[in-house]
Write a structure and sequence with these properties.
The protein is mostly beta strands and 468 residues long. Helices cover 10% and strands 31% of the residues. The chain is globular.
Amino acid sequence: MAGIYKSYKQMKTIKILEVAPGWALGLLLVLGVACVPDGEYRTPELDCWSGEEVNTSFADVRALYKGETINIQEDRVIDGVVISSDEAGNFFGSLHFQDKPEAGGPGFQLEIDLHDAHLLYPAGSHIILNLKGLYLGVSNDSYKLGGVFSAFGQKSVGRLPAAAVADHLFSGCALKVALKPTPVQLQDLGDSLLNTLVQIVDVEIAEASRGLPFAPRGEEGVRFLQDCSGNTVELLNSGYSDFYAETLPDGRGTITGVLLKDGSHYQLQVRNLSDIDFSGTPCGSDAGGWASDQVLISELADPDNEADARFVELFNAGKEALALSGWRLLRYTNSNTEVSSSLDLSGWQIEANGTLVIAADAGVFEGVYGFAPDLEGGTNGPADSNGDDNLVLVDPFGEMVDVFGIVGEDGSGTNHEFEDGRAVRKASVTTGNPQFDFNEWDIYNDSGFSGTVLAPQNAPQDFSPGIR
């Protein structure tokens, strides 16, 4: 661990600026500029930690908790990616981070008494945390790190004083990255997602909260989100945020934020208003989508030579265009019986005898196939299957219209495996089928089990996105 303390000594003078009072920082800057000849000013180069000091995992740290708050005495160092931001004032006194920028990583809440933390640790930035001397505890099923707070003889995790932040929290050398929240339906929220960045899909402001501001001035505001089935979750807002007086938005769509918990109630805390996209029509609107059994899954792709060129194609066999408001494409990973990811198709339309192409990665798709997909499903989304998952197409009324595979059965070695290959619907099939029928498909893979074709498929030549 000698390297850790050496790095800290190198950074100590820099970190003083992070915790210095505003007047002192201003004085330092004035004096610094005054000493530069000819009025020239050069931004100082700040040191950072490379990450070589990291010696433990999130899981190992969580395992230290045995039912009561503890002080970590071992030389333990973890790193992660910041997912929260206090720039708009909706977060205060806490910094949330998870172990990787994309969906699925576990997260921690770090309690710190540091104002404007986003200036030093913006969302998407790499941080390294020296845990020795910090306290670890669990509150509302959420793992927290920080200082200590004692009440009635009981210790709990409290805010780490600003002067102590520099001893534990360091900027990593990795470049700031784009965060990819976990897409999730309301009914699928769980404790494994606490302190991670999630994107709740297909929701709107609940009736009891409509027309209200995000929060009363200077007070905490708890509002409610709901889906079209009546499931709800709390929306937690600060009365000191930049947008506290704004009226909650109309419409339906997606909302991104850090998942928290209060007792048995899940709460979502957004970073700013750009985390909300309610451009779809509200539940029960006359402008909502229609049901049809002539929309079906027509092709699934897991190219052997380029996994990032995966896609799903939907086809409308009807004689009229169909708006997909309220429609969803669900993915059940491996043998899961709960939805692993969901894609809201609201706002999209399939023309008569037309297709809708959903790419896992729009940029890679366009580079491989030579044209842009209709929409991007994202990493770990329904279009990003590695060939052993099950997909379900659901209409606005929650009815299963079409399915590929058997929910609850891992596709590996079965007649619904398309790993390193392709599953394409036979041209004679013109209606969806809520029960998987192998005879409706031509399936190619790298195994050839159960009547499938042993023939790995390469992109672009072996696939036909957008052509039915």
